[in-house]
Write a structure and sequence with these properties.
Elements (H helix, E strand, L loop, with lengths): L7 H7 L4 H24 L4 H13 L3 H10 L3 H10 L6 H19 L3 H35 L6 H55 L1
Amino acid sequence: MELYRMSFWQLFLAGGPVMWPILLCSIFAVAIVLEKIWYLRKINFDSQDFLKKILDKMKRSEVREALQICDSIKSPIANILKAGILKYDRPRQQIVETIEDASLYEIPRVEKNLSTLATIAHICPLLGLLGTVTGMIRCFQIIQAKATVFHPVSPSDLAGGIWEALLATVAGLVVAIPVYVAYNYLVSRVNNLVLEMEKISTEFVNFLTE
């Protein structure tokens, strides 16, 4: 059957059993990417304006109001500053340690599932290669079987088996390339967020201890 006349399902089945884990990886990857985009969008806000409001409240010794502002915003930055505000009357070292402890809790939440996404981006081409290798083995077994019974092997027999085996590699790359692009995009967003957390925390600690 000609390739362009085959349906997606026919191509999927022709790729062999390794197409199933590749499909499963693609579903997980899409779910992770959508979840991370939604999460990063949810916690995105004007951090400089937020810091300005917090510092204004702290200048007036309105600690409770500053905590209320932190509680009103669902963001790792707000959670970290809240931890620092609760220790505002302590020595600088203790405030810094409290903020670092809060960061150790918040940063893994921000980075959650990124390692899984990277793993999917790396194993999909390997799964595709595995499918191609097993497909080629199956193809040569058929050729050997035909040769055993003195049945002539035509070039079309060989070519047909090879292109079906290569479908697994194509599928692996089709999944891996966009997943890798999405992973790099999300890592960039997370790194920028972590840098912003460090910058805001430093400005806040300097304000409390100056």
